[in-house]
Design a protein that fits this description.
The protein is built from 2 helices and 32 strands. By secondary structure, it is mainly beta. Strands 6, 7, 8, 9, 10 and 14 form a 6-stranded mixed β-sheet that branches. The chain has a 4-stranded antiparallel β-sheet with strand order 1-32-31-30, with no helix packed on it. The longest helix is centred in the C-terminal third of the chain and has 19 residues, at 448-466. The radius of gyration is 22 Å and the shape is globular.
């Protein structure tokens, strides 16, 4: 992330928590009332705009493992198989003229972990005009949890956990509390709570199973409720639990899920909980006011153990997810399901071919109609494949290249389009998506939707640069 326009260097250290959770919760509704939701147009496929493919092609099999927009929308964070985190600034303007080759993004900050990265997350109160709040937490194998500076990539702090043999262990999942005062890590049958203002060794451990009851196995995903003092834990033992943050046992427990959950998400109102698993065909939704059985099942295909994340738009109505086959799907969670199954299956509002590889990460911009997707997966050669083909792309199909050849971070413009019939092709053959196939059209002017996007993005840039540093 680009540094702010200031004469002095950003101050070091971890930011102090901004008051009590009750104070933060009371202030949030006032801020939300002043903001308008981004005008997504989920009735049609989006247009690919900026992307980063060459950055991840420098090493073989350097597939992405997720992407997340910053809370203030100023940049997007990625994780890849080379055990590195990359931060890409929001391009200004956010889209190229139609018909031009898609421009490549370059990372503003890159940090490397020592081993496989288990999870990564933004500090929830991150604001690029407040440098001490620009933090990224990451957990990697046999290493402490690191807090990285999103401006210069320096290490701002570490949280260390040890097992009963005094061996260092790393959490498989991470989540900040909504007020940013606590960092929760998921371990084997337990979670550990780290105070954000005191990095170092320690943290209170909380077991999630006692006397044969509760959750066993690695806690692979965590999520905090935005409206209550609750957090959810998903275990590789195919269980899901809901716990009060102050302590105590589970207030709700689902011990036998169809698949091990790898990603959790609360709705903005806090009444619905979504869970997606590995090697599963549905995202399950619970209404926490009636938690006995799932409310909805959203069909998607995940054929591997890879974590495939999903996201909700700021209103909480529309859910967007990728899948193993390279499609991106949108569901209207307020639409009534047509069937009466247990749980009833909600058909997609929109499904389109985005890339020719697994779309393992989707993230919606908090203020602009932009979608970020991360793609790629680990591929294992079949026993009957010839060892002479070293490029691995000889098994293509008439519909496109072989799976595994489309590793990239891609940004998509999903705003309203006033000019019908616009085509967005790429004469170099590198344009993602199957819905924009015209590669020979010459556009001499920008369409209205792009002009509006340029204006909004420039206003955000001017506001960020005009904000004086603390």
């Amino acid at each position: 992330m680009a540094a702010p326009m200031a004469a002095g260097a950003p101050p070091l250290g971890v930011p102090e928590p901004p008051g009590t959770p009750q104070d933060a919760a009371a202030a949030e509704p006032e801020e939300e009332e002043e903001l308008d939701f981004p005008q997504f147009d989920f009735g049609r496929p989006p247009h690919p705009v900026w992307g980063a493919r060459e950055e991840f092609a420098k090493r073989p099999e350097n597939y992405l493992r997720g992407c997340k927009w910053a809370p203030d929308g100023s940049c997007v964070l990625t994780c890849s198989n080379d055990n590195a985190l990359r931060i890409f600034d929001l391009p200004l303007p956010p889209g190229p003229p139609p018909g031009a080759p898609l421009p490549q993004m370059l990372p503003a900050v890159q940090v490397a972990e020592g081993d496989t990265i288990y999870d990564f997350t933004w500090y929830p109160l991150m604001d690029s005009s407040d440098p001490p709040s620009c933090l990224v937490a990451a957990s990697s194998r046999d290493s402490p949890v690191h807090l990285w500076d999103a401006f210069d990539g320096s290490l701002r702090g570490s949280f260390r956990a040890h097992n009963h043999l005094d061996e260092p262990v790393a959490p498989h999942s991470l989540a900040f509390s909504p007020d940013g005062s606590r960092l929760l890590g998921g371990f084997d049958g337990a979670v550990r709570e780290f105070p954000t203002e005191r990095p170092g060794r320690g943290g209170a451990q909380r077991s999630l199973h006692q006397g044969g009851h509760g959750q066993r196995g690695l806690i692979g995903c965590l999520a905090f409720s935005p409206s209550q003092s609750l957090f959810a834990c998903g275990s590789y033992g195919r269980s899901l639990g809901l716990y009060p943050l102050e302590g105590g046992g589970a207030v709700a427990l689902w011990p036998r899920l169809p698949a091990a959950p790898t990603h959790l998400r609360f709705s903005p109102c806090g009444t619905h909980l979504y869970a997606g698993g590995r090697k599963d065909r549905h995202i399950l939704c619970w209404d926490l006011r009636v938690p006995e059985r799932p409310l909805l099942a959203l069909p998607r295909r995940v054929a591997t153990n890879q974590r495939v994340t999903f996201d909700l738009d700021p209103s909480g109505r529309f859910l967007v997810s990728g899948d193993t086959d390279g499609f991106v799907t949108v569901w209207d969670t307020l639409a009534p399901p047509p069937g009466h199954g247990d749980p009833p299956e909600l058909p997609p509002l929109l499904r389109f071919r985005a890339l020719r590889d697994c779309v393992n990460g989707t993230s919606l911009h908090p203020a602009l109609p932009l979608l970020a997707t991360a793609s790629g997966q680990r591929l294992f050669p079949a026993p009957w494949d010839s060892g002479g083909d070293s490029d691995g792309d000889s098994a293509g199909t008439p519909e496109g290249p072989a799976p595994g050849g489309d590793i990239r971070l891609q940004l998509w413009w999903w705003g309203h389009e006033d000019t019908p019939g616009d085509t967005h092709g790429d004469t170099h053959g590198d344009t993602p998506g199957d819905t924009h196939g015209d590669s020979g059209t010459d556009h001499s002017s920008l369409s209205p939707w792009q002009q509006w996007g340029y204006a909004v993005a420039m206003e955000i840039c001017v506001a960020l640069l005009a904000t004086p540093p603390p």
